[in-house]
Amino acid sequence: MLVVGLTGSIGMGKSTAAAHLRAKGIPVFDADGEVHALYRGAAVPAIEAAFPGTTSEAGVDRAKLAAKLGGNAESFRRLDAIVHPLIRASERAFVADAHARGVAITVLEVPLIYETGLDRDLDAVVVLSAPPDMQRERVMARPGMTAERLGALLARQIPDSEKRRRADFVVDTSGPVEATRRQLDAIVCALESRTPHAFDRAWLHG
Predict the structure, then answer these.
(1) Closest to 125 measured CA to CA, from 89, 162, 93, 170
(2) pTM of the predicted model, to two decimals?
(3) CB of 123 within 8 A of CB of 196?
(4) Hey, CA dihedral for 73, 77, 78, 82, is it positive or negative?
(5) Where are the alpha helices (DSSP H) in the chain?
């Protein structure tokens, strides 16, 4: 089974691409969705211990956590040390389930693939990319987004140009959705001819 990464900076169209791949019958792990689930469950006690006053019975209060984190790099590292191992465990369970079902390709939609070194455990990485002005327009249209918050998010991610340089495949998402879908379809066709390498090494025995 091929284990493929899907990534890109904020506002590059990851959710749209993931939805298309799912419609083609390809399992896609949603790392952001898993973080939301962890913030309602497994990660809550550890986050409250590390950042007191940021949780309630409903789970992590993201606004309070963001205020507590500020722009402090050390605070983000502490949070990552809590969340990333839980995400990795969920990824392993997702990949194992796909393998047990005889799936040929499974995709991990993870914003920080390169930042966390996950790319070393993948057969290929697909990067979604669009011009900076389009990216900013998309992101700033989101509820509650501010220029300061966008800057903080981008500061945690390696530049789009570096992602594109390291990618196995790059999808230009600046055009119509149908153009993005056609690019993804061509990539899936190319992947189907590849020999898997990552699964046994990194996911079955890792």
Answers:
(1) 170
(2) 0.89
(3) yes
(4) positive
(5) 14-23, 31-39, 44-50, 62-69, 73-100, 132-140, 147-155, 160-166, 177-191, 198
**CA pair distance 156, 174, nearest whole angstrom:** 23
Residue with tokens 């409903």: 58
Portion of the chain with pLDDT greater than 70, in percent: 96
The answer to whether the beta carbons of residues 42 and 84 sit under 8 Å apart is no
What is the distance between the alpha carbons of residues 173 and 24, in angstroms, rounded to a whole number?
19
Residue 46 CA, chain-centre distance (Å), reads 22
**Angle, CA of 94, 100 and 103, to the nearest 5°:** 80
| pLDDT(192) > 70 | yes
Tell me the pLDDT band of 94, cut-offs 50, 70 and 90. very high
Q: How far is the C-alpha of 143 from the C-alpha of 6, rounded, in Å?
A: 24
**In this predicted model, what pLDDT tens digit does every residue of 6-18 receive, in sequence order?**
999 999 999 999 9
CB 11 within 8 A of CB 130: yes
Count other C-beta atoms under 10 Å from residue 47's C-beta: 22
